[in-house]
Amino acid sequence: MLFLFSFVGKVKNGSNHWKDVKDKILQIFFPSSCYIQAKSNISMFRQGSDEALYETWERFNVMLIKFSNHGFEDIAQLNIF
User: From 17, 24, 55, 64, which residue has the greatest number of CB atoms within 10 Å?
Assistant: First the structure.
């Protein structure tokens, strides 16, 4: 959360837009292949055969948090679940 406030003045990459910096960081630490795999895992989410509903819900939420830039809107997340 403090990362945003660590920039003072112009960003070293020549851009002063937060979106540009965020996109570059995501490209470095979360390449498009990982993004595609994460979206696929979320969209193909299924409950285990012996898994309780609350355990499934917890696992689904952990997956959404882990891949926070998944791009699914709330209604899509509910439909997937």
Answer: 64
pLDDT by position in tens, the chain (length 81): 556 666 555 555 555 677 787 778 777 877 778 878 888 888 888 888 999 999 999 999 998 888 877 778 888 888 888
8 Å CB contact between 69 and 37: no
CA 38 from chain centre, in angstroms, equals 8
The structure tokens listed for 78 are 């509910």
Two tokens, residue 15: 């851009």
Cα–Cα distance between 78 and 46 in angstroms, integer?
A: 13
Measured in whole angstroms, the distance separating CA 11 from the mean position of its chain's CA atoms is 24
What the block records as the tokens of 46 is 């299924």
Residue corresponding to tokens 């882990």 = 66
Q: What is the pTM of this model?
A: 0.57
The domain locations on the chain are 14-80
